[in-house]
Specification:
two-stranded parallel sheet; Glutaredoxin; alpha+beta; globular; 116 residues; 4 strands; 5 helices; two-stranded antiparallel sheet
Length: 116
């Protein structure tokens, strides 16, 4: 999403890497960037085949109405040990609050300093 692209330096300053993932094909990702949001400067991964395997493992795949077969809009922060440190599902029509994400990352940094 463009908001994350604009804040990549701030994410890097919090020792975080932005990665987008969607259950669309690589070709859909390319078309989306070309026609709608512009070129993104972070990895955008395709969870297309097997269809939405990652979304299913995170429990964010819609299996029923109103739109089965798509994943929920979800922000997941995975810490350096590979554990989910933050996860929140947002309505599809809502852009996640980037400050909420930065606050979660700051909390992780604080925890890491305290345990060092």
């Amino acid at each position: 999403m463009p908001a994350y692209d604009r804040e990549l330096e701030k994410f890097a300053g919090l020792d975080a890497q932005v990665v987008g993932i969607a259950a669309d094909s690589v070709y859909s990702h390319i078309a989306w960037q070309q026609k709608e949001v512009g070129l993104l400067h972070y990895p955008l991964c395709s969870d297309f085949y097997p269809h939405a395997e990652v979304a299913q493992k995170y429990g964010t795949m819609r299996m029923g109405p109103p739109q089965p077969g798509i994943s929920e809009r979800t922000i997941v922060i995975v810490d350096k040990q590979g554990k989910v440190a933050f996860a929140k599902v947002y309505p599809l029509d809502q852009i996640p609050d980037i400050e909420e994400i930065f606050n979660a990352l700051r909390g992780l940094a604080t925890e890491a300093k305290a345990s060092a």
